[in-house]
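Researcher: Next sequence.
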Amino acid sequence: MRIKMRSTIILIAVLFLLGAAQSQQSRPEWPKQLAAYVATSSETIPLFPHAWSSFRSEDGKDFWDKPFSNKGTVRVFQGKDWDGIWKFPNTMNGCSAGVFMIRWRSADPNVRIQTSVANNAAVASRAQTKPGIFGYMSGTNCDQPMFKFVESRDGATLVDVYYELKFWQAAP
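Model: Next structure:
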């Protein structure tokens, strides 16, 4: 009886691990082109890479090795222009010094968001994605992720956008 129970537990554990590995393998790889992308679900957003050629990354640090939270929210309002992350550490020079990657989702599945990788709201208007509920972006240290409320199917006039960031610093 004990051997049969142990075998069942081992089988369940193996099936669980195989399922977890399979779900991670089904995610797309992070695109090499720096841009904004829309996803159909959280599961179709690529995972952040663990390593990236010619760059290094440290959790909780920005391009400049300064503390910066890698998780947060941005609140966007209907009828308002583009919004970015408060005090995002982008610059105007040395645009090859770093890269950011961001994964995001709308807190309300009835509110669609438009995104852009840009250095200001005017540029964001010209380089926008299709609206979505989930997405991901990457850009240089001269850019920042931008968000805009597009439409609501339930009358909402604002929504929080949850995000997760990864900063990469140029390295030899």
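Model: The mean pLDDT is 87. Strands lie at 36-39, 55-56, 71-77, 83-84, 98-106, 111-118, 134-140, 144-152, 158-170.
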